[in-house]
Amino acid sequence: ERYSVHAADTQQLKDLFGVSSAAAHKRLHELESQAAAEGLGDPKQLNTSTTHVSHLWRRSTEGCTACDHTGYYGQIAITEVLANTEHVQKGILSPEVSSVPALQKQALKDGFVPMALDGLVKVLRGLTDIDEVLRATYTVNEVA
Q1: Residue 55: helix, strand or coil by DSSP?
Q2: I want to staple 29 with a disulfide (CB 3.0 to 4.6 A). Which of 16, 48, 53, 120 is the partner?
Q3: How far apart are CA 62 and CA 51, in angstroms?
Q4: Half-sphere exposure of residue 106, counting CA atoms within 13 Å on the CB side?
Q5: CB atoms closer than 10 angstroms to residue 83
């Protein structure tokens, strides 16, 4: 079910997905628009603008017969692919630039979409919800 974003949702988007700056909102809107154009979800209904997130999706607590009252139906992949750009190659091969944060920063500049962000776009398109994205992308290190 689609619902309006509240302050707690906005804080969660900021804390867990880094959606806090104007540039982050713009990038998220671009990714959602691209996903809509590719046929994910209703192409006429966007849940972001270049300045904010207006709506999110969550599983219905009542479900329906199609999902056997679970709120979920089927599966969808959330992915990340690191493009082998010239800048990324230089970052990997250059000892002075080869730190993980520097490489990640360069990859993001080159259009890299991390798995959690891909999942968030699919939440915006109504294909899953934040709980499932977090379950699939964030791990808790248990102490044995």
Answers
A1: strand
A2: 48
A3: 32
A4: 18
A5: 10
Distance CA 118, CA 32 (A): 9
Which residues, 6 or more positions from 85, have their beta carbon under 8 angstroms from its beta carbon? Answer: 107, 110
- What token pair was written down for 117? 């962000």
* The two structure tokens encoding residue 98: 């080869």
Contact predicate 51/4, CB 8 Å: no
Tokens found for residue 88? 């990324």
pTM: 0.85
Per-residue pLDDT 10s for the chain (144 aa) are: 899 999 999 999 999 999 999 999 999 999 999 999 999 999 999 999 999 999 999 988 787 888 888 878 888 999 998 888 888 888 888 766 567 888 888 888 898 999 999 999 999 999 999 999 998 887 655 555
Q: How far apart are CA 138 and CA 16, in angstroms?
A: 10
